[in-house]
Amino acid sequence: DIVMTQSPDSLAVSLGERATISCKSSQSVLFSSNNKNYLAWYQQKPGQPPKLLIYWASTRESGVPDRFSGSGSGTDFTLTISSLQAEDVAVYYCQQYYTTPFPFGPGTRVSIK
Amino acid sequence: QVQLVQSGSELKKPGASVKISCQASGYSFTTSAINWVRQAPGQGLEWMGWINTDTGNPTYAQGFTGRFVFSLDTSVSTAYLQISSLKADDTAVYYCARTSYVHNGVDIWGQGTMVTVSS
To answer: Which residues of chain B have pLDDT under 50?
Structure first.
């Protein structure tokens, strides 16, 4: 089974500054037939279900602000919030959906410094 | 609009069973798999498995076999999660979530169902 890890566990960033979260998979999630990485990022605020931010590692879901971006390929991925806003305080999870089971990373808590 | 609406919170005694529903609307139910995800209090997200809404074939993650059953009633666009022989550590929020037929990631989530197991 693929294992997902994230770093850091938590991150405090000043308003307007950049936040960067790393996600690693124990095996490649790059599907060679379409050259897509089967990796998604979710945001979860307290008391709410997760919300899809990014799929295929770098494609922003409709309606997601462009300050959120995803990058990486194979086994190493990054979620970047270019200019942190107060409403971005949340826990962020990555998930691979290349092969079952589809585990989530342990999550990264983002707060305001 | 596209949405998944789950049944309400449950309080159960150890050893009992619970059945959670997840009703889809706004799209063709049998075109997208339904995932089940568990979140224990203060913890992260655990992918429990999914069910193919076209064939009814379920796939369970390790740790969610035996006591956990995914089922469907396609006539009412509803997926179900049944948990039997409940234990205290089954206390969690359970989410259903749709797999996108465009990109295969999970794009739509239900609001979650809190199951509390306590004597």
So the answer is: none
